[in-house]
Structure formats: C-alpha cells, structure tokens
Amino acid sequence: MKAEEIKRIAVVGAGNMGHQISLACALAGIETSCSDVSEVQLQKAKSFMQSYLPGKVAKGKLTEEAARAAAARLRFTADLDEAAAGADFVIEAATEKLDLKKEIFRRLDRICPPHAVLATNSSFLVSSLVAGETSRPALVCNMHFFNPALVMKCVEVVKGPHTAPETAALAMDLARRLGKVPVLLHKEVYGFLVNRILARITEEALFLLETGVASAEDIDSAVENALGHPMGPLRLMDLTGIDLNYDIAMERYRETGDPAEKPSPTVVEKYARGEWGRKTGRGFYTYPETK
Ligand code: CAA
Fold first, then answer.
1. What is the DSSP letter of 10?
2. What CATH number was assigned to the domain covering residues 3-185?
3. Which of 32, 224, 271, 278 lies most in the core, judged by the most C-beta atoms within 10 Å?
C-alpha cells in the first residue's frame, strides 16, 4: 500500500497527543476516527477542534471550506472496535502503560483488516514490546509525534527487528502526507533520538535549578536565547506534563534498577503536589487561564 492510498486512519486515544494527531490526519484529507475510553477526553478533543479550526480560518491559514471538510472527516467515538474496523493505518496514542498497550494491540489485531499497519506513538515503549501480541508483526512499528503534534514537524519512525521495510517506508510517507519531516531509526533504542537528547538537557537544567545556580526563568531564557530553542526545558516540561516525566523516569528506574534513572527531587515534589504543568495550572510556572 502507498501513503496516498490510505483512506481511513484510526487514532487510539484522544489525550495530549491523540487529539492533535487525529486532527492532523483529518486536515491532510484522510477519514479519521479518534477513540478514547473517556467521554471527558473525547469532549475536550472535540472542543479543541471546534476552536482550533475557526482560529486558523480567522488567521487566514485555512479556508472555511477546508475547515468544514476537516471537521466532517474527523469522528470522535468511545467505541474502539467501531473506530478501528476498516482502518488502513492505526496510530495508538493511549496512556503510556505497557499492559494497556498490549491489550489494545491484541484487540486491534482482531478488528483491523489484515493489511492495516499498527503503529504506536509511544515515546519510549518500542514496538517489539507489542508486536508479538499481533499476528502481523511485520506491520507494526513506532511512529512518534511531538507535542504539540499539529505544530512540531518531526516524527520519529522506528523500525523494530520485526518491522518490514515497507511498513517503515509507509509510515515515513504517511508522515510526509501529514506535512511532517520524518526521521528513520534503523533499530530500537530507549528514548529514540529526540528524547535521548532532550533528557540530557532537562537533567542539566534540573541540576542547575536544584543547586540554586539560577532560576527556572533564567535557565529557560538561556536555552531560548543562546541555543535558539523555541522553549527552555522547564517551560517545555510544563507543556508536555511533569506527570509524564515522572511516570517515564519511574518506569525506567523499575526496569533498570539504576538510581540515576529516578526522577529528580523537584519532579518528585511537583508530581506529589499535583503541579503537573499547564494542564493543572501550575508547574515550574503558573497558568492562571487553566481551570
Ligand atoms: N496546539 C496546537 N497548536 C499550537 C499550540 C498548541 N498547544 N500552541 C501553539 N500552537 C500554534 C499556534 O496556533 C500558532 O499557529 P499559526 O502559526 O498557524 O498561527 C503557532 O503554533 C505559534 O503559536 P504562538 O505564536 O501562540 O506561540 P509560540 O510561537 O510561542 O509557539 C510552540 C508555541 C509551538 C509551543 C513553541 O513554543 C514551540 O515550538 N515549543 C517547543 C515545543 C517542543 O519542543 N516540543 C517537543 C516536545 S518533546 C515531546 O513532545 C516528547 C514526547 O515524547 C511527547
């Protein structure tokens, strides 16, 4: 199958990543179903779409007709079976819990047509952890978007030992069809490319904050104005979620037993206080607009 022949996409999960990945697919002209077990999450995703599309029209970046067509192509549903039946390509963007992902891949394998590619948007779980749950490991790969998925151009496509070269090539071409600039990882490695690099920068930023060398504002300002990053690492953690940083570090620590993998004391403290970043109204910074 070629990327232009993909007619239907199912995105599993309407959370932080899924709601924007599904809208990116619909904007690229593909019939898309976005499913989630949480009605609240689905409603949030729908509300986002209903404000995002008119916003783009108002800015002159999208015609009214294109916005209407994209909205008509995107369906939100609590029914995974209904969303995945008939899909040519699935992007799983559910919570980063391995058992849950295994269950989803088993179910997708039963529901989806035999030709469908099953990709996971996981930022750290390699697809060989779930490929064995399916009868089609050659059609399983990682396809990792960045937050906010409608804006960030990079998509990491990771080829596992089970992934057919054609599957990786199709995921790369689909990313291009969505207007992204994909990169290919020829083998699985923890953290892929971007999060390995980002983790080192974030670790150093937390060290400098915790040892009182500089404020969060000045650490971010330095990275933004000296290195040209659009956002410093602490502001970025507020965007992606301090809870996500905590969960990933804990999972890694449990897996390796290496104390160096534990979340930093600041992250542990903020996690326990429910200061998870933008989504809770407070993280390294405060966000009065978040209820
Ligand atoms: N969702 C969708 N679109 C958004 C957005 C959001 N949350 N925030 C901003 N945008 C869009 C705006 O609509 C605007 O689009 P137009 O140009 O079409 O008008 C554009 O982005 C610029 O927005 P703003 O002018 O309001 O704000 P900005 O210039 O400060 O940009 C930003 C905001 C795009 C988030 C920018 O700060 C940025 O690129 N930050 C870095 C993000 C980053 O590094 N992401 C990678 C995270 S790591 C990760 O994702 C790991 C993982 O595994 C999950």
1. E
2. 3.40.50.720
3. 32
pLDDT at 290: 74
Record the tokens describing residue 143, joined without a space: 């396809």
Distance 103 CA to ligand 1 centre (A): 32
Give the tens place of pLDDT for each residue, 152-199. Answer: 999 999 999 999 999 999 999 999 999 999 999 999 999 999 999 999
How far, in Å, CA of 147 to CA of 240, rounded? 7
- Annotation marks residue 156 as catalytic: yes
What are the sequence ranges of the domains in the chain?
3-185, 194-273
HEC secondary structure over 193-235? CHHHHHHHHHHHHHHHHHCCCCCHHHHHHHHHHHHCCCCCHHH
Cα 39 from chain centre: 19
Secondary structure (3-state) at 263: coil
- Condensed to tens digits (0 to 9), the pLDDT of residues 269-281 reads 999 999 999 999 9
DSSP structure class, residue 264: P
Q: Specify the fold of 194-273.
A: N-(1-d-carboxylethyl)-l-norvaline Dehydrogenase; domain 2 (1.10.1040)
Annotation marks residue 195 as catalytic: yes
123 part of the active site: yes
**Pairing label, strands 8-12, 89-92:** parallel
**Active-site residue, selected from the candidate residues 156, 162, 188, 245:** 156
The helix (run of H) or strand (run of E) holding residue 154 is strand 154-158
